[in-house]
Amino acid sequence: MTSPNTDHAELQITGMRCASCSARLEKSLNQLPGVCAVVNIATEKASLTFDPAQADVNTLLEAVRKTGFDAHPARDFAAEKQDRLKLLRHEQWQFFLSLALTLPLLLEMVGMLVDAHLMLPIWLAWLLATPVQFWAGSRFYIGAWKSLRSGGSNMDVLVALGTSAAYFMSCAVWLLELDQPVYFEASATLITLVLMGKLLEARAKGKASAALESLFNLQPKLAHTERNGQTLDVSVGQLRPDDIFVVRPGESVPVDGIVLEGQSSLDEAMLTGESLPRVKQSGDRIYAATLNQQGLLRCRAIAVGSRTQLSAIIRLVEQAQGSKAPIQKLADQISAIFVPSVLGIAALTFVVWWWLGVGFTVALINAVAVLVIACPCALGLATPTAVVVATGRAAQAGILIRDAAALERAHTLSVLVVDKTGTLTAGKPEVIALEPAAGVAELELLATATALAQHSSHPLSRALTEAASQRGIALANVTDFGEATGQGLYGNVAGLACSLGSPDFIKQQAITLDEIALSTLRSRGQTVIAVVRAGSALGLIALADPVRASSRDAVARLQALGIRVIMLSGDNHETAAAIAAQVGIAEFRAEVLPQDKATHLNALKSKGKLIGMVGDGINDAPALAAADVSFAMKSGSDIAIEAADITLMRNDLMGVADALDLSRATLAKIRQNLFFAFGYNVLGIPLAALGMLNPVIAGAAMALSSVSVVSNALLLKRWKPNDVGTQQAANETNSTN
């Protein structure tokens, strides 16, 4: 639900214990009129889009509380981290005290292993188990009560019910002096093990968001600003647009700005993932948190606070980590009925064993084992934890993923359509040759072309104006200027009708061109522009957009991944064929107008293929929108982060291969996690019901199941992008500075 009339809110949720909790809360919020909610158990946040005419933040907070949880509007990362650390310290204290009280209860079990008789008096066992049950285990009772009161059930219900059954049965045996064993050690050990599992899970989840934390930590605290002729040290938050600031060697850039004086090399790895520094000088743009390695830079601030590129990256990563992958839908559906189903299985287990005549104690203990081995947490964490790790790791590599759905779709792509200009090539064409007609001077040819080109923002037009500037050509005035999209320009120069554009566009005007010169230039892979004045051809201008050094390797890597690569180009067939041959692409479409790119993509999609589109954002918007997954390559001076499903912060097609590789690695981890989570419950619950698992062993397995899922997802932190492409992209950038 997105429209100009909607608002967005992020709520930090406390009290969610498992996937059943997040599923119940999400369902409750989505039942509110005008509200669309996504609840993420891994980040413990709710992302909400709502109609302000039907709901507000207070309404949402109240709905969360009625569902049995606490919430507050999400704050900055540092504040949330402090809250998490405070809660973690409290949970550590609970666990270690619970462990200290539980260890003596295990002496009898240890004694059996070493053939010794270590028996605690029952009253002492009760004394040790009681604070564990009702103090350390209070979180389970509170959580269970809130869940049941709101009409739901969660992991707390299972733990509270299972441990209470063992504890109160033991109390009854002791007080009534029955000839039955007591299970105080079982109830205390179960609570201690679950606390341990939750503690390990919290630490692992903290590691999952380490990449996001590292982005926050990059933000500088101080800046050197010039005020009233003096250089003062101020907090970064005090800088405003147009303030003048100084960056010394070894310091981080405080805000986004423009270099006014000085030259230096800046490490922009945090922004682009490139390992090599970029040379910056007067007129170049610099970004907050990039590291100045050498010279002194005097700069003017152009974006501060939440408007910097670093802040935009952080917002996008948070957005991606808060989103939900489609593959999670099955886990959510199962989580919604998981706890009631387990309660039913536990009740059936007790009844069947009681009916078989094994006695009340054995029947109850087997039912307790069913309750404590069931783990909805592993199901809930299987997907979001992997998404959190993957999107954070991607951002560190200069790959910004908009949401989890895009990350999932990317692994299924079979065809990748690549726009030639700015993707396979550098996107900075240069005038290579001037071929004037007989009796026409080169400067006359270029001057006429540039007079029209000065009014266009097309890359070829910019190349013409730059060439004219280098030759000292003055720009003539133009009247009645017009543009034929994707074909050419026209207007009156010095009172004469002039036009320039593709040879085909010019030939449509019944103008004869030098076909030999045209064919020769095209065979070299050069783009040719024809210029006409007063109905006669003035000549041809050849331009070349150099192929990126990494393009051929990137295409080869994509093909090795099983991707069919197709190039789109506005050039004629001969020029497009030459470029395609240089980069190793067998399939290409030539003479494609900007407005026709989307048509080509839809034609491919009609054949049942999942299509990816890579473009540089110039005239690519309709095609990017038509693709199943869109990749936008953005230079450091022109980053539109919201433009595509996946934005590559470095000018390198190898980043697309990296993104596909990471997507496949992530989906593999998610499938492993889901297989383990489902398999664990499918195998564990029947074994417990059959009486083959002691409740303590069942509790230990449950405690470690979610930890193992999170730990498996953390292995994605080892993923690395292709270093060769990164270094080649950095070298290209420096060579153009």
UniProtKB/TrEMBL annotation:
The chain crosses the membrane at residues 93-114, 120-136, 157-176, 182-200, 334-356, 362-383, 673-690, 696-716. Its EC number is 7.2.2.8. SUPFAM superfamilies: Calcium ATPase, transduction domain A, Calcium ATPase, transmembrane domain M, HAD-like, HMA, heavy metal-associated domain. Its main location: membrane. Gene3D superfamilies: 3.30.70.100, Calcium-transporting ATPase, cytoplasmic domain N, Calcium-transporting ATPase, cytoplasmic transduction domain A, HAD superfamily/HAD-like. Keywords: ATP-binding, Cell membrane, Ion transport, Membrane, Metal-binding, Nucleotide-binding, Translocase, Transmembrane, Transmembrane helix, Transport. Residues 7-72 form the HMA domain. PANTHER family: ATP7, ISOFORM B (PTHR43520), P-TYPE CU(+) TRANSPORTER (PTHR43520:SF8). NCBIfam families: ATPase-IB1_Cu, ATPase-IB_hvy, ATPase_P-type. Belongs to the cation transport ATPase (P-type) (TC 3.A.3) family. Type IB subfamily. This is P-type Cu(+) transporter.
